[in-house]
Amino acid sequence: MKYSAISLFANALSGHKKWPVQFPDKEPKKEYDAIIVGGGGHGLGAAYYLAKRYGITNVAVLEKGWIGGGNTGRNTTIIRSNYLFDESAAMYDHAVDLWDGLGQELNYNLMFSKRGVLMLAHNVHDVQSFQRHVHANRLNGVDNKWLSPEECKAFCPPLDISPHRRYPVMGGALQMRAGTARHDSVAWGYARAASKLGVDIIQNCKVIGIRRDPDGAVEGVETEKGYIASKKIGVSAAGNTSVVMEMAGLRFPLESYPLQALVSEPVKPVMPCVVMSNAVHAYISQSDKGELVIGAGTDQYTSYSQRGPLHLQEHNVAAICEIFPIFKRQRMLRSWGGIVDVTPDRSPIVGKTPVKGLYVNCGWGTGGFKATPGAADMLAYTVAHDAPHKINAPFNLDRFVGGRLIDEAAAAAVAH
Ligand code: FAD
Ligand code: PYC
C-alpha cells in the first residue's frame, strides 16, 4: 500500500493539493514581466514602485473584486510606528516616512493627518510595557513619549481620567508623528499613478491557480479570465494568502480572522487624536466626516467571511463608554468586517518564497494599513532584485523554521 490511511486522512483534512496541479494546456492571453496578485494598497503600491523606481512597467495587478475593496477600504486608518523591536522600527518608520509627501507624489489627497496616537495604560503591566516601548522607540529614533493621566486629559479632553473608573487611566504613550489617512484613497492614488506609468490593473480577475515549469519556477497564473504568463509573481492578497500560496504547493504559517469596526453617526469635531487601549480592547478616533471610528480586536475564530458577530461590537462600544462616558448616547451608523492574516509572531512576511519567481507580502494582521507605502516599496524591491532589501530581510519565511521571531504581540495593541 502506497499511503497509510492516516496520511490520506491528514491530506483530506488539510485540503492540501498535490503540486503540480494540471491546467488546460493553452497559450497565455498575455505575458508580463511581473504580476501582482491583489489590488489593495500594498499590491497597487508595489506595482507603482516597480514602474517608478525600477522602470518595470510591463506589470499587471490582478484583483478578484474591485481595487481597495479588501482590507485597504475596510480599516480604521491608524498610522503609527511605535513597535518594539529594531526590525519593526526600521520597517514601520520607513512607512511613516513615506506617508509624508505621498499625497504630493501621487497627486492625490490622502488626507494624511498627524494628529497623534495615544496608547492608554490602565494597570501596572501596561505602564511597564508601554514605558519599555517608549524607551526602545526613542533609542531607534522613533518619537514616543510618556504622559501622566493629567497630560493625557490635556491632550485628549473627552477622556475620563477619574481614578474611580473601572479602567482608570494610569498614563499613556503618545506618538505625535502618528495619525490617520483616508484609507481607500491610498489604493486609488497608487492605482492611478501606476496606470499612468503603464501598469495594467485588471479587476474581477481572481487568480485560481499558479503554474510552475518542470524546474519548479513559476511561469504564470490561471485566472477566471484565462491564463496569464509571468516569471515573477508577487502575492499581496491579505487574508487569502494561504489559499493563493497553496496554488503553488506551499503551506504558510498564517491564520485568517475576521476583524470588525464601526462608526457612529457624525458629530462636530470632538476627538482631537487617536486613542487606543489594550486593556479594554478598543480604540477610537474621529473621521473628517465627523463619525467616531471605533474598533476592537479580532474575532476569536478563524474564518474567510468578511463579517463578524454582533456581540463583539456590543463589547467594543461598552469598552469605549468605559473610558469615554461622554460618548454613551452616540448612536451607531454602520459596521463592517475584513479578513486579516496573522502570523505566529504578529509580524509580517515580506520576501522570497522557496518557489523561484514567487514573492510574498502577507501576515500584516490587524496592522498593515500604516505599512502600506513601506510594504509596497519592499515588495517592489524584492521582486525587482530577486532579493530582499535590508529592511524586509528579517521578515522572511525562514524565521519560523530557525526561530528568529519578531514578537510584536504587545505593539499590535488592541489588535488580537
Ligand atoms: P487588501 O487591501 O486586503 O488587498 C488584498 C487584495 O487581494 C484584496 O483586494 C483581495 O480581493 C485580493 N485577493 C485575494 N485573493 C485574491 C485572488 N485569489 N486573486 C486576486 N485577488 C485576490 N491596519 C492599520 O495599520 N491600522 C488600522 O487602523 C487598521 N485597522 C483595521 C481595521 C479593520 C476592520 C481591518 C479589517 C483591518 C485593519 N487594519 C489596520 C489592517 C489593514 O487594513 C491591512 O493590514 C491592510 O489594509 C492590508 O493591505 P493589503 O493591500 O495587503 O490588503
Ligand atoms: O495597528 O494601530 C493598529 C490598529 C488599530 C486598529 C487596528 N489596527
Briefly, what is this?
This protein has 416 residues and is α/β, with parallel strands linked by helices. It has helices at residues 5-14, 41-54, 86-99, 102-106, 124-139, 149-155, 183-196, 241-246, 310-323, 372-385, 399-402; strands at 30-32, 34-37, 59-62, 78-79, 117-121, 145-147, 171-175, 179-180, 200-202, 207-212, 218-223, 226-230, 233-235, 255-264, 274-277, 282-286, 292-298, 332-342, 349-352, 358-362.
Q: Please give the order of strands in the largest beta sheet.
A: 6-7-5-15-16-17-14-18
Strand content: 15-25%
Helix percentage range: 25-40%
| Assembly annotation | single chain
Average pLDDT figure: 93
Radius of gyration: 22 Å
Q: What name does the CATH topology of the largest domain carry?
A: FAD/NAD(P)-binding domain
CATH class of the largest domain: Alpha Beta
- How many strand units? 20
Summing up helix and strand content along with how strands pair, one would put the structural category as alpha/beta
Low-confidence stretches: 1-16
Annotation field: number of helices: 11
Fourth-level CATH superfamily of the largest domain: FAD/NAD(P)-binding domain
- What's the end-to-end separation, in Å? 45 Å
Describe the largest sheet: 8 strands, mixed
Shape from CA axes?
globular
Give an account of the 3D structure.
- The protein is built from 11 helices and 20 strands.
- With 416 residues, it is an alpha/beta fold.
- The protein has 2 domains: 187 residues, FAD/NAD(P)-binding domain (3-Layer(bba) Sandwich); 148 residues, D-Amino Acid Oxidase, subunit A, domain 2 (D-Amino Acid Oxidase, Chain A, domain 2, 2-Layer Sandwich), CATH 3.30.9.10.
- α2 packs parallel to α7, α2 packs across α10 and α3 packs across α10.
- The radius of gyration is 22 Å and the shape is globular.
- It starts with a helix and ends in a 14-residue tail after the last helix.
- The protein binds flavin-adenine dinucleotide and pyrrole-2-carboxylate.
